[in-house]
Design brief:
Blueprint: E1 4-5, H1 15-25, E2 28-29, H2 42-52, E3 59-62, H3 72-82, E4 95-97, E5 103-106, E6 109-112, E7 115-119, E8 127-130, E9 136-143, E10 146-151, H4 166-169, E11 174-178, E12 185-191, E13 198-204, H5 206-211
Parallel strand pairs: 1-2
Antiparallel strand pairs: 3-11, 4-5, 5-6, 7-8, 7-11, 8-9, 9-10, 12-13
Length: 219
């Protein structure tokens, strides 16, 4: 028997089972369980951020899967909690690469490089950054001391002159965000049990800058 439950979204965590158990046993939940399903889809997270007025970079969504899957319970819960009507079904937009290769066009809206391409799945960390004039970076879950790799010949949105990822492009659902100029610092945030306060860590990326020194950033 469990009286108090704290739950964090992660791969293979049985969220539906945890929600059902909390209802059955009237468990006191430290954090809300139902909204954690939002984290499975970056499009839903974006909808919530827009509704709450949280500033985010301009973004465009390319949904080739019909849009995010929103079950009735989640939709009703979020409507009651913050007044948002979560959108599900989305029509697949028309996507093309501009002739000069430095922008993509999504349903007539132009997104200039540099931009960031993310899979809609919150568990897929293969994120791509595309730079003006070609070249890009692939970000991924940290392995040893590295969390990114530089790739030449990357022209954006799956339209790669070297054929990289082209085979997957027609099947992928992605979001595309304008990449804003920022510092060369990596920010990590976590909660510590002892103090229950948020700790902010700034990690230098000097090693990555050395590896990518020759890269023209495109600004």
């Amino acid at each position: 028997m469990c009286d108090i439950l704290i739950s964090f979204f992660s791969t293979d965590f049985p969220l539906d089972k945890a929600i059902a158990y909390a209802k059955l046993r009237d468990v006191h939940c430290i954090n809300d369980l139902i909204p954690q399903a939002l984290l499975w889809d970056r499009r839903l997270v974006g909808q919530v951020l827009d509704h709450l007025g949280v500033p985010t970079p301009p973004r465009h969504e390319v949904s080739r899967d019909g849009g995010p899957k929103v079950d009735k319970e989640l939709k009703e819960h979020m409507k009651k909690k913050i007044g948002i009507n979560l959108r599900g079904f989305q029509v697949t937009p028309e996507v093309s690469l501009r002739e000069d290769g430095d922008a993509i066009i999504i349903d007539g809206q132009v997104l200039e490089k540099p931009f960031v391409e993310k899979p809609v799945s919150g568990e897929d960390h293969n994120v791509y950054i595309y730079y003006r004039g070609g070249g890009g970076r692939r970000l991924f879950r940290k392995v040893s001391v590295s969390h990114l790799i530089y790739a030449q010949g990357v022209y954006g949105n799956g339209f790669l002159r070297l054929g990289i990822r082209r085979a997957n492009w027609t099947r992928r659902s992605t979001t595309h965000e304008r990449m804003d100029r920022t510092s060369t610092k990596s920010l990590s945030m976590w909660t510590t049990w002892r103090t229950s306060k948020c700790t902010l860590s700034v990690q230098s990326t000097r090693m990555q800058r050395r590896e990518n020194r020759r890269l023209w950033m495109g600004w």
